[in-house]
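Escalation from tier 1.

The customer reports that the assembly of two entities below gives different structure tokens on two consecutive runs. Tier 1 could not reproduce it. I'm attaching the input and our single run for tier 2 to review.
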Amino acid sequence: MAGEELRHDGKRRNQNWGPFEVMNEGPIADGELRSLMTRYQSSDRAALEELVRRLSPPLLRYFGASGIGREDTEDLLQDCWMRIHRARHTYRSSEPVLPWLYAIARHTRLDEYRRRRRRQAREVLVAAVPENLQCAESPAPPETLENEEIGRLLAGLPGSQREVVLMLKVSGMSLQEVARATGSTVGAVKQKAHRAYQALRRALAEGGLQPARGFSLASHRRDASSASQAKACATILPNPTARNVETPGRDSSPARTEVRPPEESSTERENAE
Amino acid sequence: MPNERGIKRDKELDVESRLEAWGASKPAREVSSPLRERIERKLAASLNPVKTLPSARWLALGFLAIFVVGAAICVQATDNYGLRLMNAGQIAAMTTIFAAGAIGFSVALAQRMIPGARALISPGHLLLLSGIVLAAGIAWAFPWSATGAFLSEGWPCSAMEAEIAIPAAVLFWFVARRGAPFIGPGFGAAVGALAGLLAMTVQQFQCMFQRAPHLLIWHAGAAAALTGLGALSGAVARQFESRKGGSR
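Tier 1 run:
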């Protein structure tokens, strides 16, 4: 059907409308985004500002759904905009904006995952606990028990399946858009989504999936930030005399409380490309 | 009696609706004004008009043109001994396979240059399919006799293939790099496969050992190794770029 495409749930969605919703402003038309992108490519400052204003909230939401803290999410957003800026010549006005944008956002997220992994690999155990012990993340807004459980179960899914579910269910993208953004085919996306639903259904029936199976960007932090700060610290530090701190390195950020991740699962490695 | 498929579908919908509820619990957050201004300032500092990339179709045609011209020049520069040894069926089979491979990998590389481009076939499947077709074509079209000097007459072919493929890969890499804001193993593999195929085409038409074992191991095997080398180079480049980004 012209102008419409099949959504994952079988409903039809008008292709002229993207899933972006700016607070209090409703959805943004893809045609409008295309025209803003074209103006941005010809160095229109107003178009740049409008794009940043309109596209940042959904991008922030996408990065935030990985379970990382607000500060890191904002860093990711900045990094993502720099990449969008450097790659703006690769956008073609005849193509939809959404898959192009999320393909860049996806790579930004993956690169951040790798950097984090490298940083965590340099952590060492020290005997003394610093006096001004504070968890790096501020507590996340409270979630319902069910949503918390879903979040935890998602963290246990293989990286590629989790990504597809995030794009479909958090970013509200269609199968075609997810396929383009992930550089795969619609069939492959359908298969990943189906496997993810199956795994989730199984886990829900069994009463939970072990999050350790696949280490997400901050699946541990999600656990930590869901309770109070003190409780979170207790969760990460079962032994008060031993703590993970970061050793200074080339790309190290200010010292923070981090949890050493379990062995990288093969499913996270899938995300490498 | 309840319909089993109906129950299965209901369960599926239950998971989907729970996921949707979870997704809806993560509302789009407003970006703070200082952050937005910081982003805008950073981007505006290097805001200048850019020339957009041609469409994926034109990019693919460009790679194909480089492939054809490069192969033609190299074949002309050699003695074409292999061409004289092959019969019409063998020439037709190999030309068809090389042409299909060149089109497929040109399209794959062009798609890698544009984020969010439509993929007709996943790169992994394309590599697998082309490998199977190439091996089957050689196995079917060429005799399975082997000589005693399999190793000594084989490795110079692989070495020469690498000599042709490496400069070709460098050329493809630099042409493709104008797009491709993020390189990785997939990008590297597409470059390696296209360059390897170009070198294999040249070798096919100049090699004097037109036998299936020789072609499979020393020609197709070398092309596969070059594809792997390309993927490895892509992974290393990706690691380097990610590190560079991390030190920002």
